[in-house]
């Protein structure tokens, strides 16, 4: 089957090969025919070595498709079922799950160290234990979440990561207060979803911050009240908040420099929400005095900061009701054979989300 493979960490191109086989099928596992997958910035981060991932590997973790085969003991799925791939499934029995913090379950991360694929030359891993830049993938049954028939595969794929992460940051982690002021730094697919979440919660002012003009224009269509480049943020802070700072600032880049900027633009007593996934050795520096004196809340948001399955259901309900726009998030479409074109689109900032059709 076809799959896009990164041979070594640090390479900037994927090789689409036809000699890859999905492996690991057995009890408690399912085989999925991938129909659509989104390119998330986390895929690029893993390719660059920012996020830890053994190589060679097949990137992709934001996917949807249909069940081809179910293993022994899998009762809730059958061949033909439409599913979204969940890269962070909850085991239901660990301390985090028992506390209701299923997004902190580590079971999914354990899958990342087991090869999902093989080639004649040897084992190949799947990013985040999945690897959706392939025609088929074998995963634990908990990674395959059924979706209704009226949800297209491309929309379902976005729900599998970016939309859930961005919406959840605003709805779950921050619980944005109606009438508040919000700034979102980084307006790709996840940032745009955070903007939509802040709008749903009734934020009065939503300032989108991004260096790419096309993304700023898009942010206004999705609910931002103002869209600016990073060097315009001091003026916007003065105009919108009288210089006090925003009630909520979402950092959706994953870098200490932008997190520091976000902190400085959060008002005293306000909330900084860290959504971007950054590097292990990229440290955010804060003084003990400012932490005490400013009393700003710093809230990391992992995968939307809430129960993933409930978040999927909520997003589908909001999409059906026309309360969130998911179709317009997909600005580009490419076949798997042209995956490197999608990588270029993300690096250049020209795409909110590119859908890879498989």
Question: Would you summarize the structure shown here?
Answer:
This protein has 358 residues and is of the alpha/beta class. Helices cover 30% and strands 26% of the residues.
Helix-residue proportion: 25-40%
Shape: globular
Q: Alpha-carbon distance between the termini?
A: 11 Å
Strand percentage, roughly?
A: 25-35%
Query: What oligomerization state is this entry in?
Result: single chain
Structural class: alpha/beta
Return residue spans where pLDDT drops below 50 for at least 5 consecutive residues: none
The description of the largest β-sheet is:
7 strands, mixed
Average pLDDT works out at 96
The gyration radius over C-alpha positions equals 20 Å
Contiguous helical run count: 12
How many β-strands, per DSSP?
A: 19
Written overview of the protein:
With about 350 residues, the chain is an alpha/beta fold. Helix content is about 30%, strand content about 25%. The chain is built from twelve helices and 19 strands. The chain has helices at about 40-50, 95-100, 105-110, 155-160, 160-175, 190-200, 215-220, 235-240, 255-265, 290-295, 310-320, 340-350, and strands at about 5, 15, 20, 30-40, 55-60, 60-70, 80-85, 115-120, 120-125, 135-140, 145, 180-185, 205-210, 225-230, 245-250, 265-275, 295-300, 330-335, 355. Strands 4, 6, 7, 10, 11, 18 and 19 form a seven-stranded mixed β-sheet that branches. It has a six-stranded parallel β-sheet with strand order 14-13-12-15-16-17, with helices on both faces. It is globular. The N and C termini lie close together (about 10 Å). The model has no long low-confidence stretch (mean pLDDT about 95).
